[in-house]
Amino acid sequence: MKLTKKIWLVLGLLVGLMLAVDVARTRHELAEEASRESEYEARNIHALVMAMRRVYQDQFVKSGLPVTDATVGFLPAHSIARIAREFPNWSNSGIRFNNVSDRPRNPGNMADRFEMEAIDWFRANPAATERLRDIVEDNGVGYLHYAAPIRVEAPCLKCHGARAEAPAVIAEKYDTAFDYRVGDLRGIVSLRMPKAKIEERRTPAGANA
Description:
alpha+beta, 49% helix, single chain
């Protein structure tokens, strides 16, 4: 092989290597950016859920409404669960969220195995404010799971303190989730973001063209 051809071959290999490195770096940067955006979005949804919980709770307490079968749906644990079920009708993001517990009063708010792991983790790490993990459900679908603790506050004790002091409809209707104290872990806000949607953000424009 002539020297000129060897030089061009080496130059071609170097250019190819540089392009491969650049593509790999670009994909890595896109992956990091997509992860940051997803985590930012998860934190904002969590903030919105907690803001709704606080407003619903404060408004219910200030309204002076008695806790009855007709009004219990306004309490945060009930209302947020209903909002979570309604959310997919307004968004095609695939995002799912709810407030869940290991001691729920409503079966729909029972923590699954991933959420139980998060609850146990928060009990072992009481100063932690959030937890992010990649999970794969039994159907093979992957999610970014964001969890944040829900801790008992003073107004919560009206329904979650001593059973003897709870409103009659609560004491008669439920036999669990009593005897909490301020600061106890009541449950978590659980949020799932489909990994496939996150992956779409990582793909450079035109890469699949």
